[in-house]
Automatic annotation (TrEMBL):
Residues covered by the Solute-binding protein family domain: 67-415
Cellular localization per UniProt: Cell envelope
Protein name per UniProt: Solute-binding protein family 5 domain-containing protein
SUPFAM superfamilies referenced in this protein's UniProt entry, alphabetically: Periplasmic binding protein-like II
Taxonomic source organism: Microbacterium jejuense
Pfam families named in the record: SBP_bac_5
Length: 502
């Protein structure tokens, strides 16, 4: 585990360089691709989370300590497990100066709750029963059923509040309420951002400018940081960890966080058969994947990933499968494929660990008779095909929406880019609902144990490894901390509030 020391969380002002000189508060951030046009509520992966953090704002957000804090909401109250009240900050506006009111929040939440809009937070938002507003700054949300984790969905970066005229699944969101606005951009090269003069908390923004530069090649990103061309990079390749860790003046902050998995077209073809998916779960050597795709900087996964210390994480839940090619062959024969079959695996070359995972899986599955052909391209192509269900099996990265095991409801059933296509198992769905809505912890544990036994023989997905998600930056960058676990991708919430020392 290569974990570098994390810089102090205390914000360092422009004059804290020790030299008495003012330090330009400009952050140059080398990111792993060009941001896509922002869509309301849509999961656009790590780069999308960054743009949400810079340009948009929700009622709540995750802070650098992995705790929920207020954002557009001045305060909130969880009345019970199905009722929540929010009070907005006074005189809120969007970046174009138009008022942001409780009605905007109500409309946005209703949009996110509609499954037809494919919002990332639909699993939690669809439980909303009623939203009532009281003037421009107060609203009460009542759920159809208990959800003690509802605030985690509200804090998700994709649950930002959207103006009425941009609140559409087809519209591009260009006006937000976040701390920065785009001043200039050059396609394929980068963009420049400056503080939003209408932001509700301008004093918290020390940076005068953020320059995003696009480096789709992981080695090029690392080289740009080591040469001083950029101050910070996302997704340093595991193969570069040692290089970065030993470089003077560089901080590598890596944490076990997102998962790499196989998800399936469960609507048609061989992978629609639960026995075939179970066979895959036994056929893949996770240690092989971790070595081939992440230079060993990943932990093998044999069941649902839960928070460390979670009462729902048992020895059984963490070992639903093992590496057992002979058992995989038996399951394939039982499924009607004693000689195996040919299929295509969708992956992406833009992130090497995706393609390297696919190659490792290709090797392992060939041993049990499943012959995979790689369909590899850039991320936008992957997203397009994944959304359309135009694949048989695909490599899928990502992290749970929230730290609680109720994230599994969307992980299995959201029918989104990060899930299998058209997977259905009503018994499993009900067990997960029972786990979320139960009144006692004992009842929740029993319900989740029931769910995991179903997953053991009817896998909605096959999680392979938990990767070390990292950021690397100059030690002059102050105020950043990589949050461990599923919240690591939300660490970029801190980017707008960083400062630069000398």
């Amino acid at each position: 585990m290569l974990l570098a020391g994390v810089v102090s969380l205390a914000a360092c002002g422009a004059g804290d360089a020790g030299s008495g000189e003012d330090v330009p508060q400009v952050l140059t951030y080398g990111i792993s691709g060009e941001p896509q046009p922002i869509k309301a509520g849509l999961n656009q992966n790590s780069i999308g989370y960054l743009m949400d953090a810079l340009l948009m704002q929700g009622l709540l957000r995750w802070n650098e300590e992995g705790e929920i804090e207020t954002a557009l909401a001045e305060s909130y109250e969880q009345v019970n497990n199905s009722t929540y009240t929010f009070t907005l900050r006074p005189d809120l506006t969007f970046s174009d100066g138009t008022p942001l009111t409780a009605e905007d929040v109500k409309r946005t939440f209703e949009f996110l709750a509609n499954p037809a809009n494919a919002a990332y937070t639909v699993a939690g938002m669809s439980r909303i029963d009623t939203i009532t507003t009281d003037g421009d700054s107060s609203l009460t949300v009542t759920l159809k059923e208990n959800d003690p984790d509802f605030l985690s969905y509200v804090a998700n970066p994709t649950a930002f509040i959207v103006k009425e005229d941009e609140l559409s699944a087809d519209a591009t969101v260009t006006v937000g309420a976040g701390p920065f606005v785009i001043e200039d951009q050059t396609q394929g090269v980068g963009m420049e951002l400056v503080p939003n003069e209408n932001y509700y908390d301008p004093e918290s923004v020390t940076l005068e400018r953020i320059e995003l530069e696009y480096y789709t090649d992981a080695t090029a990103r690392t080289n740009a940081l080591l040469s001083g061309d950029v101050d910070m990079i996302d997704y340093p390749a595991a193969q570069d960890f040692e290089r970065l860790e030993s470089a003077p003046g560089i901080v590598l902050d890596a944490q076990p966080a997102p998962l790499i998995a196989l998800t399936f077209n469960a609507a048609e073809g061989p992978f629609a058969n639960p026995l075939v998916r179970e066979a895959v779960a036994y056929a893949v050597d996770r240690d092989h994947v971790a070595s081939a795709a992440d230079a060993g900087q990943a932990d093998p996964v044999y069941g649902p990933v839960l928070q460390e210390g979670s009462p729902f994480a048992t020895e059984r839940s963490q070992s639903l499968y093992s590496y057992d090619p002979e058992k995989a062959k038996e399951l394939l024969a039982e499924a009607g494929y004693p000689d195996g079959f040919d299929a295509t695996i969708l992956t992406m070359s833009q992130y090497p660990y995706h393609q390297d995972t696919a190659i490792a899986v290709q090797d392992d599955l060939k041993k049990v008779g499943i012959n995979l052909t790689l369909d590899s391209g850039d991320q936008p192509t992957w997203v397009q095909k994944a959304t359309a269900g135009d694949y048989e099996v695909k490599t899928t990265g990502g992290a749970g929406l929230i730290p609680d095991p109720s994230y599994l409801e969307s992980w299995y059933f959201a029918n989104a880019t990060y899930t299998s296509t058209n997977y259905e198992n009503e018994e499993l769905r009900q067990a997960l609902i029972d786990g979320r809505t139960a009144e006692t912890e004992e009842e929740r544990v029993a319900a989740y144990e029931r769910a995991f036994e179903i997953v053991a023989v009817d896998p909605p997905r096959v999680d392979l490894t938990q990767r070390y998600n990292g950021y690397a930056y100059k030690d002059t960058i102050q105020g950043f901390k990589n949050i461990p676990g599923f919240l690591s991708l939300f660490s970029q919430n801190a980017i707008p509030y960083l400062s630069v020392s000398g």
